[in-house]
Amino acid sequence: MSTSLGGITVSDDLKRSLELDPSISAVEVKITAQMHDEDTVRSVLEGSGADPEHREVFFFDTPELGLFDAGVVLRARLTHDGTDDSTVKLRPVDPTTIADDWKNTDGFEIELDSVGDTTICSAKLSVDQDRNEIRQVGAGERPLRKLFSKDQERLILEHAPAEVSWEDLTVLGPVQVRKWKLDPKAFAHDITAEEWVLPDGSDLIELSIKVEPGESDTASEEFLAFLRSKSFDTEGDQQTKTRGALRFFTTGEGLD
Prior knowledge:
The chain has one domain (2-251): Beta Barrel (Hypothetical Protein Pfu-838710-001). Helix content is 25%, strand content 35%. A hairpin with a 5-residue loop joins strand 10 and strand 11 (203-211). The relative contact order is 0.21. Residues 1-11 have low confidence and may be disordered. It is globular, with a radius of gyration of 18 Å. By secondary structure, it is α+β, with helices and mostly antiparallel strands.
């Protein structure tokens, strides 16, 4: 059997070898709730007794998505009653080509994302932001570049297209986000649920688990079986949060 890794079809043996790469910190198994299940999922989440974390997510790119198309995502998350942060994310990446200098940098992580039949390796570097800094950038009151550290700027310089400058970037957002952490009694893993709501009211609910490298195949099967036991449809098309949000802010096409 084979799977898709960053748009490239690879064997299951290669996927397993990537999972066992010592630089891979975790594997995140994700599934998007289908539209006909969203009301039920939302009702379960709101009735769980767990208080959701509220966030506002901003992206920064050109109107033509010059960074995203080159595999670079610039993101900032404003967390109500929590710590704000900015992130430079690269996807897809080959972990064997990432320099040790980056792997040893504080805040740098390499993960595998498993979405349906697709597995994508990504790397990210995150730094905390002071309160109000992200909102000031979103309002055009502070230079965008100041949200990113020197290490983040260096990472962008290494991977972003040379023709894309800071002056070319625009603020895309915010997306309103609610995030729940659940600990189901009948399931071995904690479940993270995120509801993303765009300005037009369209939304997406993603459920995920994070597991140790080498455990994703078994954990994924158990996760899907658990969701099916709750009568959730696990067979429909999958959307990704970032791609859907960027598409909306550049084309007006919603998530639904």
